[in-house]
Inverse folding.
């Protein structure tokens, strides 16, 4: 005890003004606390209730004589007392137990009130003989059930259990195992799980009763005991016994720790983890009140006091009541005051133990550790200071510690701190950078390996992966950087090191092949340019596996179209072939040969066409790819954008070797085959961008492809324009012959354009003109006058060129005129005959001489019907239709229908103009309308207006 430090962690409250009120008249025999008040019992039978500061509240007469024991219940506002009342008879004892309900006040007079006494029990009965009561305790099991234990001077314990207020109780007796029948000096209840235990202390033993068994099982756990008032219970339900040589702690299985505090223990108590002890010094005769902090092995407070009669705790304070009714109220200082006291004495270890033992929050503990670390740092005890700073990780800003040890150039301590910071997962990118720099500065490869390659998961989430890779690369620790990248799944960093730092292209290709297809595709997009530069063939093989998944049959169980749609497209990898068109062409050719009808076939064909048709495999558009956007702008269907070729077809022969010329010719043939194969005759839309293909053919002077595209698009005029530009008369005539045949869906106007071309040529082309005239005359495409006017513009052509053509046309026209004249005469004769017949019908009578019916050929008898057309019928043969001749009616109806149709067509402008435009000779259509009397038909003039000429319709 004398080696323990003494501190003033407690202070006296109320500045010595704390005394028992004068209203408590008798001698205090018992005390209890709880529910915010102190209850005292006196030898005059009164019970007084004191409020905060020991101020008198009220009192009442509990017993007629002395109050021996009392207890304030915590769960209910009850007071249980044991005292002496008037003896009713010699056979009954004067000692009884009473229960008072403090919430039910019964007015006794106009000036005083007292609580309701809800139960009075006689403690001693015939089964429970009377003895002196030495100890008393009440346990609130579950309201309203109470368990009352009463210790006697003969070693017996009387127990009363049940609802005391309603007297629904059971009584039983317990006996300790002590031959001398020593008195029970202390009792204490303990809940051990579901088991209820009762400690019983006598001067010669410590016993334990287990109420889980019936009757309660007795166990003697020690052969030494204690006197009255030197027994208490800790907050962990440990029994504490004070003897002159020491203070003993007891658990259910026996004696626990022992603290050697000399002196007679007058009173023992427990307050917030502190042991309270009033010790009488036999040599000096003084009483000392000590407060022990057993965890930290210090005396939190020590005070010389008068003779103490009672000790209890309430309102967060310790209350000592003296025999002279004076009192001390002692309260604990706040944590900050206690720490300041320790800091001033540089007792940092004590401060740390104090905050930890009192379960202070982590921030407060960290602050104490920081101050201790600062103290050690100021004394240049860097290792010890760092040990304290490490304990503050998670609460103290790391930069505070890092700055100190950077200034002190204590790289070993700093490394230790940063390691702990990473172990707890609280390191930032900067901390990782600093730690790795420390390792590299120290050249501590072993620690670097432990940090990077430890198998306990340190390298997974406890440092920033990218920072570690970057620092290791900068320090030329490529192996460590690659390990971190591979373990963290940062494939892009792993490949960056292999390709940019080590130049291990084969290993990089191997690594890419080992990745999942999705990851492999991402890495190839990023590093494909470097791989194509050095390993084009191997890179193309990887791309083929990615885009076709060769050999991976497990993924091909679905339909072929669905499976291909899940694979990356070659278009996604075009950017890696910048400045490498030949590998790109090889890759796309292999892909198109392997995969039929891929999803991005339009883009693939566009790219192949640009490669096939370009000069020297120049691919300027690839160098202009926007790699950041990943798209090729300004071209339909995602096609590669084109730029003006730097050389045309004629310049190839100048300055190129025969090998290059042969390669160029092969590529052009591939391009033509692609143009034809990607536009099957049964499809209207080709599998490439037609506009782009036309531009490429024009830029690279690829005549065959251009002619094919124009012909497929039915741009026949552009086709013959190509021949005209090349002055290929033979091909021009053959083309017009094929494309100008209207019988096969051609355009007859091509021959007119061809004739116009020869007419404006300015050179002798007699042979060609004659051949063209043959086709024009055959199909009657142009009138002779137009032919004559067109050819008259060429001064090199003579009249002999068209002499035979004009003669044949004149002869043909003369024959047509003669045929028309004969037709006119015939129609005039028929018209005159019809008019004569009409006149005859109007003026002369008709004689019907038929003797047989035209319908049934039987002899004609009455009633009969005769028609002007000279047909006669029985009336019965006509039926209901007597107004028209059955023989002539169909012909007549056809004429009427034709007339009605012509009248309807006269109002249809669209039909008229459509026939005019669609006819070779529009004049003949108009003449036909006039001949049928449609256009010349006039409408009657309106009323009150002059007669106007008929309109066209």
């Amino acid at each position: 005890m004398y080696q323990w430090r003494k501190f003033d962690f407690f202070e006296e409250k109320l500045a010595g003004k704390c005394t028992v009120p004068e209203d408590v008249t008798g001698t205090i025999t018992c005390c209890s606390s709880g529910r915010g008040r102190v209850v005292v019992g006196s030898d005059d039978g009164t019970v007084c209730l004191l409020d905060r500061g020991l101020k008198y509240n009220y009192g009442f007469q509990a017993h007629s004589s002395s109050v021996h024991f009392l207890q304030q219940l915590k769960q209910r506002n009850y007071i249980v007392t044991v005292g002496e009342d008037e003896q009713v008879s010699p056979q009954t004892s004067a000692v009884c137990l009473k229960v008072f309900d403090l919430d039910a006040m019964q007015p006794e007079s106009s000036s005083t009130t007292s609580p309701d006494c809800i139960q009075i029990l006689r403690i001693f009965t015939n089964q429970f003989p009377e003895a002196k009561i030495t100890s008393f305790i009440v346990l609130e099991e579950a309201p309203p059930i109470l368990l009352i234990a009463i210790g006697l001077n003969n070693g017996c314990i009387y127990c009363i259990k049940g609802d005391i207020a309603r007297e629904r109780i059971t009584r039983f007796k317990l006996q300790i195992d002590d031959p001398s029948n020593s008195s029970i000096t202390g009792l204490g209840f303990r809940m051990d799980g579901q088991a209820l235990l009762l400690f019983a202390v006598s001067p010669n033993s410590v016993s334990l009763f287990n109420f889980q068994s019936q009757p309660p099982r007795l166990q003697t756990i020690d052969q030494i005991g204690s006197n009255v008032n030197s027994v208490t219970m800790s907050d962990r339900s440990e029994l504490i016994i004070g003897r002159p040589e020491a203070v003993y702690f007891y658990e259910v299985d026996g004696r626990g720790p022992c603290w050697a505090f000399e002196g007679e223990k007058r009173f023992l108590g427990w307050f917030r983890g502190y042991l309270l002890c009033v010790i009488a010094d036999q040599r000096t005769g003084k009483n000392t009140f000590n407060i022990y902090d057993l965890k930290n092995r210090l005396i939190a407070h020590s005070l010389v006091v008068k003779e103490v009669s009672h000790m209890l705790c309430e309102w967060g304070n310790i209350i000592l009541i003296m025999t002279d009714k004076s009192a001390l109220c002692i309260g604990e200082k706040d944590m900050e005051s206690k720490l300041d006291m320790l800091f001033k004495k540089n007792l940092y270890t004590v401060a740390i133990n104090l905050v930890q033992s009192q379960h202070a929050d982590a921030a407060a503990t960290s602050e104490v550790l920081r101050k201790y670390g600062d103290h050690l740092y100021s004394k240049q005890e860097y290792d010890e200071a760092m040990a304290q700073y490490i304990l503050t990780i998670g609460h103290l800003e790391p930069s505070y510690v890092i700055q100190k040890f950077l200034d002190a150039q204590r790289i070993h301590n700093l490394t230790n701190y940063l390691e702990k910071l990473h172990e707890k997962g609280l390191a930032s990118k900067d901390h990782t950078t600093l730690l790795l720099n420390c390792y590299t500065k120290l050249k501590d490869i072993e620690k670097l390996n432990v940090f990077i390659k430890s198998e306990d998961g340190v390298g997974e989430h406890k440092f920033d992966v990218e920072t570690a890779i970057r620092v290791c690369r900068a320090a030329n620790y490529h192996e460590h950087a690659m390990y971190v990248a591979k373990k963290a799944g940062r494939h892009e960093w792993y490949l960056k090191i292999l390709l940019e730092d080590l130049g291990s292209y084969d290993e990089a290709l191997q690594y890419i092949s080992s990745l999942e297809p999705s990851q492999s595709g991402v890495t190839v997009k990023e590093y494909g340019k470097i791989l194509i530069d050095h390993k084009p063939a191997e890179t193309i093989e990887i791309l083929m596996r990615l885009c076709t998944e060769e050999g991976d049959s497990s993924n091909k169980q679905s339909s072929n179209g669905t499976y291909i749609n899940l694979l990356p497209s070659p278009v996604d990898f075009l950017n890696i072939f910048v400045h490498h068109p030949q590998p790109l062409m090889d890759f796309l050719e292999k892909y198109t040969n392997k995969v039929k009808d891929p999803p991005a076939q339009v883009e693939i064909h566009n790219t192949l066409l640009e490669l096939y048709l370009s000069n020297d495999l120049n691919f300027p558009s690839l160098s202009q790819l926007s790699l950041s956007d990943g798209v090729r702008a300004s071209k339909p269907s995602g096609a590669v954008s084109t730029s003006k070729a730097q050389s045309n077809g004629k310049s190839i022969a100048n300055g190129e070797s025969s090998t290059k010329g042969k390669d160029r010719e092969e590529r052009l043939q591939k391009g033509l085959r692609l143009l034809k194969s990607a536009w099957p005759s049964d499809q209207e839309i080709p599998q490439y961008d037609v506009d782009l293909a036309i531009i490429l053919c024009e830029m690279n002077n690829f005549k065959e492809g251009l002619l094919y595209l124009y012909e497929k698009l039915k741009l026949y005029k552009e086709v013959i324009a190509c021949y005209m530009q090349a002055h290929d008369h033979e091909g021009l005539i053959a083309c017009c012959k094929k494309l100008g045949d209207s019988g096969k869906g051609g355009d007859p106007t091509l021959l007119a354009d061809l004739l116009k071309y020869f007419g404006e040529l300015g050179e002798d082309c007699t042979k060609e003109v004659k051949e063209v005239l043959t086709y024009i005359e055959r199909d009657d495409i142009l009138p002779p006058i137009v032919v004559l006017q067109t050819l008259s513009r060429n001064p090199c052509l003579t009249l002999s060129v068209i002499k035979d053509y004009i003669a044949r046309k004149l002869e043909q026209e003369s024959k047509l005129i003669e045929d028309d004249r004969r037709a006119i005469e015939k129609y005039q004769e028929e018209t005159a005959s019809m008019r004569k017949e009409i006149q005859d019908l109007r003026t002369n009578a008709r004689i019907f001489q038929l003797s047989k019916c035209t319908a049934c050929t039987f002899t004609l008898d009455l009633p009969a019907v005769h028609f002007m057309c000279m047909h006669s019928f029985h009336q019965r043969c006509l039926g209901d239709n007597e107004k028209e001749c059955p023989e002539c009616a169909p012909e007549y109806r056809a004429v009427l229908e034709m007339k009605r149709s012509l009248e309807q067509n006269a109002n249809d402008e669209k039909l008229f103009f459509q026939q005019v435009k669609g006819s070779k000779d529009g004049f003949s259509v108009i003449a036909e309308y006039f001949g049928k009397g449609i256009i010349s038909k006039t409408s009657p003039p309106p009323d009150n207006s002059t007669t106007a000429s008929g309109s066209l319709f």
In short: Residues 800-843 form the longest helix (44 residues). The radius of gyration is 62 Å. The first strand starts at residue 5 and ends at 6. The CA atoms of residues 335 and 369 lie 15 Å apart.
